Backbone:
């Protein structure tokens, strides 16, 4: 059993251009992915400046993306993070939400995502107010599916450290108050989960009163620490038996559009092959399919340096890697060169301001 697979473009960092995103759409659609949710943190009219509409040019670009996604056989969704709409959830907030949901509907969406991830949690009646906002938007939108992501989207105690201690019974209350049709994104036991097991998902579903849609933070590599590494390896620590406990499995992509499709292609293999799945063989098959035999073999040789050592510790190896990948005329090779040159490395300030 393969659950509905998708991509939630919900990372920090550089926004892909249309060519990069188009490549990802085509590649994932061909691999059997079923939905694409657009919501990069750097798209300010969807987050920090959500009350302000996209420019006409940007709205047209998103409409083209939606048409491309649907043309490839996937559902298209847009994610909005309505910062400050819950406290107070007053007439002004309702008017702004009504206008912005109409804007997104006009672009053309199958799915609407109303997200609260990475927002402060020390607010009174947090679960109740967030559920009110989501239900309000769900009643307005023409989209046939609605998703949300709570502020505490994992058991990970780092969320309590960064966003204040989560309210008691936060997950249970938000589950009871949300419209039963709303799907809830969840990352697992950790923000970047090393493993996602059926027993954990079953427990969370019981607490929330519904199965979750996985927001899998692999191969995402945003932020000041993770952007120093290329996330290339195939999926590990994910059980195919999780399928019976979730509504879908969405991945959060890497900054590097072409390279990130290598691990993306291994997720359907994991579910399809089950106990026959081997992550090394899956990486080899996916990289050969996307890069060709010679490039894939080279990447296999260098994967430890690129994924484990990291950009800042390569030393003299960096120039040798530049020479190797400069000789390859391929967008993925150019992504490696860009990363080696530090062009996609992020800072903490970027994350805090996006």
Residues:
């Amino acid at each position: 059993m393969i659950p509905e697979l998708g991509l939630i473009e919900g990372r920090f960092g550089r926004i892909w251009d249309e060519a990069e995103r188009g490549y990802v759409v085509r590649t994932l659609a061909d691999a059997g992915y079923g939905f694409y949710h657009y919501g990069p943190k750097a798209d300010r009219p969807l987050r920090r400046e959500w009350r302000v509409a996209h420019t006409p040019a940007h709205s047209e670009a998103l409409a083209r993306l939606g048409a491309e996604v649907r043309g490839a056989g996937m559902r298209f969704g847009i994610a909005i993070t309505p910062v400050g709409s819950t406290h107070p959830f007053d007439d002004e907030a309702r008017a702004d939400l009504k206008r912005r949901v109409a804007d997104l509907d006009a672009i053309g969406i199958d799915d609407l995502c109303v997200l609260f991830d990475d927002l402060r949690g020390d607010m009174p009646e947090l679960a109740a107010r967030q559920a009110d906002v989501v239900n309000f938007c769900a009643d307005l939108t023409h989209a046939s599916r609605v998703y949300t992501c709570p502020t505490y989207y994992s058991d990970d105690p780092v969320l309590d450290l960064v966003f204040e201690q989560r309210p008691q019974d936060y997950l249970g209350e938000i589950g009871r108050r949300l419209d039963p049709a709303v799907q809830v994104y969840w990352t697992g036991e950790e923000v970047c989960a090393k493993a996602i097991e059926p027993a954990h998902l079953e427990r969370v579903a019981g607490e929330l009163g519904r199965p979750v849609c996985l927001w899998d933070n692999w191969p995402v590599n945003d932020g000041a620490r993770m952007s120093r590494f290329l996330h290339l390896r195939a999926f590990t620590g994910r059980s195919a038996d999780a399928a019976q406990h979730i509504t879908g499995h969405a991945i959060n992509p890497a900054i590097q559009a072409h390279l990130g499709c290598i691990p993306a292609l291994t997720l359907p293999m994991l579910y399809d092959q089950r106990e026959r799945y081997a992550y090394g063989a899956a990486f080899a098959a996916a990289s050969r399919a996307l890069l060709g035999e010679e490039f894939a073999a080279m990447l296999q040789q260098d994967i430890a340096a690129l994924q484990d050592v990291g950009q800042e510790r390569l030393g003299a190896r960096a120039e040798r890697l530049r020479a190797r990948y400069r000789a390859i005329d391929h967008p993925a090779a150019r992504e490696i060169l860009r990363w080696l040159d530090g062009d996609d490395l992020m800072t903490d300030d970027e994350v805090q301001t996006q």
Remarks:
- The chain has two domains: 5-278, 283-352.
- The chain has 14 helices and eight strands.
